[in-house]
């Protein structure tokens, strides 16, 4: 059976300096505007990292290049897969691509599919507005992180607004 195509909807970088990364990617890719979301809290009652409750904060910037969302993440405090990426010497740099689930059931099915393919669940959570996300990793196959996300209508409208800022 051939799996359903799951094209990436987002490319993300982790950085220590949002402004420098925004500036460089704008010059290299022609991005017009970044929308910043400072101090995004990933709370322990809604997020896990390596199977334990996660409690961290990151500054995030979003933009679009056509239909592809670009995300920049700068860890602020607390242990996270973003902070560990920087501390382990793997970053700053390209961190993950994201694929989108059609609904919460599809999200769970995609996580199960990833596990069946040998990918380890690294982090998982639900953001305000109901966006579900999970990061899986298969480093032996050259896949540091793949994010799987379910994006409900409320969050989709925010993303659509950010996309419109590029016109």
From TrEMBL:
**Sorted UniProt keywords:** Lyase
Q: Does the keyword Lyase apply?
A: yes
Q: List the molecular function annotations (GO) for this entry.
A: lyase activity
Keyword Lyase annotated? yes
Name by which UniProt lists this protein? Lactoylglutathione lyase
Organism of origin is Mycolicibacter hiberniae
Q: What is the lineage of its organism?
A: Bacteria, Bacillati, Actinomycetota, Actinomycetes, Mycobacteriales
């Amino acid at each position: 059976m051939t799996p359903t195509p799951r094209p990436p909807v987002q490319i993300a970088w982790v950085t220590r300096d949002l402004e420098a990364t925004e500036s460089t990617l704008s010059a290299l890719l022609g991005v017009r505007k970044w929308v910043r979301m400072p101090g995004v809290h990933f709370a322990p009652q809604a997020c896990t990292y390596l199977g334990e409750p996660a409690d961290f904060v990151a500054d995030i910037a979003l933009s679009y290049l056509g239909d592809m969302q670009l995300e920049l993440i700068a860890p602020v405090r607390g242990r996270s897969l973003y902070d560990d990426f920087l501390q382990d010497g793997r970053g700053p740099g390209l961190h993950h691509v994201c694929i989108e689930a059609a609904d919460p059931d599809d999200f769970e099915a995609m996580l199960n599919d990833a596990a069946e393919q040998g990918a380890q669940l690294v982090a998982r959570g639900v953001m305000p507005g109901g966006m579900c996300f999970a990061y899986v990793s298969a480093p032996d196959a050259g896949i540091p992180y793949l994010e799987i996300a379910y994006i409900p209508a409320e969050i989709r409208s925010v993303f659509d607004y950010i996309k419109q800022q590029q016109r």
